[in-house]
Specification:
heterodimer; A: about 140 residues; alpha/beta; 5-stranded parallel beta sheet; 5 helices; about 45% helix; globular; B: about 375 residues; alpha+beta; Beta-Lactamase; Heat Shock Protein 90; 5-stranded antiparallel beta sheet; 5-stranded mixed beta sheet; 10 helices; 12 strands
Chain lengths: ~140, ~375
């Protein structure tokens, strides 16, 4: 009955946060594999390359995207990701996960078609589990 | 003359004298002088108070030719226009202008004028007053300055509050996450493993608070005493302190401070500005060439008293379209440099602005970056 996500992706520059979410995912067995990118540039490079060498198994089902990152922030990632998202056959659900409680950020993110929802850090373990279960 | 006539004459004479006395008193007390420009006879007339306000001798006879010399140069065009409108089209005026006294002292005056018509409705002159309102305008200017300072302090405070909430939130949310996980995990070993993360979070939290303290101290230090600082000496001090980095990277530094050699400033801030901008230029050097840094001073072309410092490099450059508005933000880094902390330019900006200066940057990718500071 309970399906499980195979591949999830985190784009975040905060090492400790990434480590903790990884631990939660392992403990609750929320997915099999995890892709981690430390900023938007690394993330978008992965997805743009993936389009060239299309491999269904390498497409994550969920992306947890931070906003404030060096080199390329979450907004720029979203701008470029939105252009190619449909080519992945709507398999990818993207959540923005940020510590920003600025309502401008929240409204802007939620208004984007490629963003499923906005989660405010710290995420609660149950909230995270609900996200993964909903997609699976 | 009959008795009654004499009496009447005396009364009207007294009345005239009395009126004159009051007009003169009110003109003196309000520093208001009258004038008249007679187009038919090509002459101008001033009363005593106009001469007094404009610092001309009591027996001075004004001429039409000198009219423009009564006004500060920056208002010549405006005054010419205003007088023409009045003389040709009969438009009265009431404006605040900068005037020049005989001693070349600038002061603010209110100039009111209206056309004078003859019986044929033809304009034959302009009559009006000058009122010395320098005190009032100076107060207004000071008030405006004070309000600008308050507004800029307020916006920096607001910005600071935003930074505090944002940067502390990321640490506190990690702590919350750790606590959640500790409750979630079953074995003691796993719980203990998480303690290590708390060490990391508390270290980063401390660093953030240190940085915030640094920013706060800039705001309070800005009342520190400014002294005369020499650009060349400051540059030498800073380059000596980072001599090793300069040699290791084969850096060439050219400087020209001939246009402005000294400035009234807080010495520690100028040190820090030089240090931050120089180390930045070296840190983000182009891999294909040795760093060349050009430093020069000049004076702002609209305000000679304002010293401008330019520091340009031939480094990596930065995409200003993308990062321009974030360049001076806290914890913003733009290159893959391991030692980029995103604090230097933020501190520099705060130091410059706390002393009412401005900093800006222009850049071309792969060509270099120029920082301009208006002190």
């Amino acid at each position: 009955m309970s399906k499980k996500i195979k591949l999830a992706c985190i784009i975040d520059d905060d090492n400790i946060y990434v480590k903790l979410v990884r631990k939660i995912i392992e403990t609750r067995k929320l997915c099999d594999h995890l892709l981690i990118f430390k900023d938007g540039k690394e993330g978008i490079d992965y997805f743009e390359t993936l389009l060239q060498n299309f491999d269904k198994d390498n497409i994550p089902e969920v992306i947890l995207l931070d906003l404030n990152m060096p080199v390329m922030d979450g907004w720029e990632f979203l701008e470029r990701f939105t252009k190619i998202k449909n080519k992945f056959n709507n398999q990818i659900t993207l959540y923005v996960v940020s510590s920003s409680i600025n309502s401008t950020d929240i409204d802007k993110a939620k208004s984007l078609s490629s963003v499923e929802n906005y989660l405010i850090k710290p995420v609660r373990i149950n909230e995270l589990e609900a996200v993964f279960k909903k997609i699976a | 003359m009959t008795d009654t006539n004499l009496k009447r004459h005396n009364i009207s004479n007294n009345k005239l004298e009395e009126d004159n006395f009051y007009y003169r008193e009110s003109a003196l007390m309000t520093s208001t002088g009258s004038w008249y420009i007679d187009f038919e006879n090509k002459k101008s007339y001033w009363d005593d108070i106009t001469r007094k306000i404009l610092e001309y001798p009591v027996d001075f006879v004004p001429s039409l030719k000198m009219a423009m010399s009564l006004y500060a140069e920056e208002h010549h065009a405006y005054i010419a226009n205003t007088f023409f409108e009045c003389a040709l089209s009969g438009v009265p005026f009431d404006s605040e202008v900068l005037m020049l006294t005989a001693n070349n002292r600038k002061f603010w005056a209110r100039a009111i004028g209206k056309p004078v018509y003859n019986d044929d409705k033809k304009i034959i002159g302009v009559r009006g007053i000058f009122q010395d309102i320098d005190d009032i305008i100076q107060k207004e200017i000071n008030l405006e300055k004070a309000s600008e300072i308050v507004a800029s302090q307020n916006s920096r405070l607001f910005n600071f509050a935003h930074i505090v909430s944002h940067n502390l939130r990321s640490h506190s949310s990690n702590l919350t996450l750790i606590v959640q996980l500790i409750n979630e995990l079953d074995t003691v070993e796993e719980k203990l493993e998480l303690l290590d993360n708390i060490t990391h979070v508390s270290e980063s939290l401390n660093t953030t608070i240190e940085h915030l303290n640094e920013v706060v101290s800039i705001q309070t230090n800005s009342n520190q005493l400014k002294v005369e600082v020499n650009f060349a000496n400051t540059l030498e001090q800073v380059t000596t302190s980072i001599n090793q980095i300069i040699e290791n990277n084969n850096v060439t530094i050219n400087s020209d401070f001939s246009k402005a050699e000294i400035i009234e400033y807080i010495p520690a801030y100028l040190d820090s500005i030089f240090l931050n901008l120089l180390t930045n230029a070296i840190k983000y050097k182009h891999k294909d060439r040795d760093p060349v840094i050009n430093i020069s001073t000049s004076r702002d072309f609209t305000n000679y008293d304002r010293v401008v410092l330019k520091i340009s490099d031939n480094g990596l450059g930065i995409d200003m379209d993308k990062f321009g508005d974030k360049l001076f933000g806290m914890y913003k880094t733009f290159h893959y440099n391991a030692d980029a902390r995103g604090i230097g330019l933020f501190i520099t900006k705060n130091q410059v602005e706390s002393l009412n200066g401005e900093i800006s940057a222009t850049s071309d990718i792969n060509l270099g970056t120029t920082f301009t500071i208006k002190f």
